[in-house]
Specification:
About 40% of the residues lie in helices and about 20% in strands. It is α/β, with parallel strands linked by helices. The longest helix has 26 residues, at about 55-80. The relative contact order is 0.13. This is Aldehyde dehydrogenase.
């Protein structure tokens, strides 16, 4: 096993040289990162195909292209982001000036998940580099081919003292979490997120937790059903539903339920064929334990589409379940697979109450042509982020912070928010010596009287 304390010492020493704080160094590192991804594109596509059976189209869209956009945006905006920001100074501080400086934390730990094993390892790294930090990346052991390519890519292009990849299973993560990192960024499940936060608390290490939860999609009776069905099908069954912001379940207005289900079935067949298990590009379930867990949900409610599976190939058809209630097993935890429960409603107030009585979801999707209804739902329901009349698309914008709330996570990233996540905002007041306001000193005559007049 690698001596993790010596690795941290090496990175801390490199950080203390102040090289990572130089703007040119950061931009050059980001250019290097993008160039190395381009050089490794074929290896990345092959590795993710082996790990998850993703098509080249899906891999490029969700794992590679999104990183190019994020890097380009960061390189363009970084010179503005790193500048000290002058802010207002109150009258009580007359003679002084106030500034906010962006300070990197130092040595950061990035723990990545298996569902988007390349993108979710490097997207936080973009923010860490932009902010001037060093980084240790721990990829998932459930996607070994991608982890191996990631390690090769990083080791060939970056010094271990700056960025490195540590492969290994759960015990490797546990060992890393015992070290005194300056910041920890974790993407994964809620139970493991709690373990990470507990470990971080021992050193009072700040954390970002990108978790998950049961994200609802609501189809109101005035929605464009054809468009809604296509976007729900795409958002749910991309990556075989193994997406933290995938619609976890549907609430469909009873007046349009059958019409919508017809459109949804058509959309699924159009995207994945009449026999999805035979579709060479339909993503597989990551491992047997997760496959068996998902299999258990197929007995819930009434299966109106799909339900077939292939354990040897670890594939489960896109499956629609009706006659579902909150008491069913499929509604107890995040599904994270190609199983979509459908509940119906008549009154939106009942929908709101149902969602509010469960942990805050990471994402929220509402389909309606009414801006007033959409605004009402946004106002009344707590969630990390979401879309009106779409699914998932919000996370691809560098101008929108992506993160959870409550049980679905702590902190946010993407675009400038990635830079801010990996930066401490250091407040500095620069005081004049030309004059001195005596009110603050204990020996001033009538000090309290003057102070009350001044600070009334």
């Amino acid at each position: 096993m690698l001596a993790y304390p010596s690795l941290l010492t090496k990175q801390k020493h490199f950080f203390e040289t102040n090289q990572t704080k130089d703007l040119r160094f950061r931009i050059d590192a980001l250019h290097t990162l993008k160039a190395s991804i381009k050089e490794y594109e074929d290896k990345i596509l092959t590795a993710i195909k082996k790990d998850l059976n993703k098509s080249e189209l899906e891999t490029y869209m969700t794992e590679i292209g999104i990183l190019y956009s994020e890097i380009d945006h960061t390189i363009k905006e970084l010179p503005k982001w790193i500048k000290r920001k002058k802010v207002k100074t109150p009258i009580t501080h007359t003679g002084s000036k106030s500034y906010i400086y962006q300070q990197p934390y130092g040595v950061t730990l990035i723990i990545a998940p298996w569902n988007y094993p390349f993108q979710l390892a490097l997207a936080p790294l973009i923010g860490a580099i932009a902010a001037g930090n060093c980084a240790v990346i721990k990829p998932s052991e459930y996607t070994p081919e991608t982890s191996s390519v990631l390690k090769e890519l990083i080791s060939e292009n970056f010094s271990e003292a700056f960025v490195t990849v540590i492969e290994g299973a759960a015990e490797t993560s546990q060992a890393l979490l015992k070290e005194n990192f300056d910041y920890i960024f974790f993407t994964g499940s809620v139970p493991v997120g709690r373990v990470v936060m507990e470990a971080a608390s021992k050193n009072l290490t700040p954390v970002t937790l990108e978790l998950g939860g049961k994200s609802p999609a609501i189809i109101h009776n005035d929605a464009n059903l054809k468009v809604a069905a296509k976007r729900v099908a795409w958002g749910k069954f991309t990556n075989a539903g193994q997406t933290c912001v995938a619609p976890d379940y549907l609430y469909v207005h009873q007046d349009i339920k059958q019409s919508f289900i017809t459109e949804l079935k058509h959309a699924i067949a159009t995207m994945y064929g009449e026999h999805p298990l035979e579709n060479q590009n339909f993503v597989r379930i990551v491992h047997e334990k997760h496959f068996d867990r998902l299999q258990g949900f197929l007995t819930n409610g009434n299966t109106i589409l799909g339900g077939k599976s292939d354990r040897e190939k670890l594939k489960i058809e896109p499956t629609l379940l009706t006659d579902i209630t909150w008491d069913d097993a499929v509604m107890q935890d995040e599904i994270f697979g190609p199983v979509l429960p459908i509940m119906e409603y008549q009154d939106l107030d009942n929908v709101i109450q149902g969602i509010q009585h469960h942990p805050d979801p990471l994402a929220f999707y509402f389909f309606s042509e009414s801006d007033a209804l959409a605004d009402n739902m946004i106002d009344k329901i707590s969630f990390g982020g979401g879309c009106i009349n779409d699914t998932i698309y919000h996370l691809a914008s560098p101008y929108l912070p992506f993160g959870g709330v409550g049980n679905s996570g702590i902190g946010a990233y993407h675009g400038k928010d990635s830079f801010l996540t990996f930066s401490h905002q250091k407040s500095v007041l620069k005081q004049t010596t030309t004059f001195d306001i005596p009110l603050r000193y204990p020996n001033v005559k009538n000090g309290l009287k003057l102070l009350k007049r001044f600070m009334k």
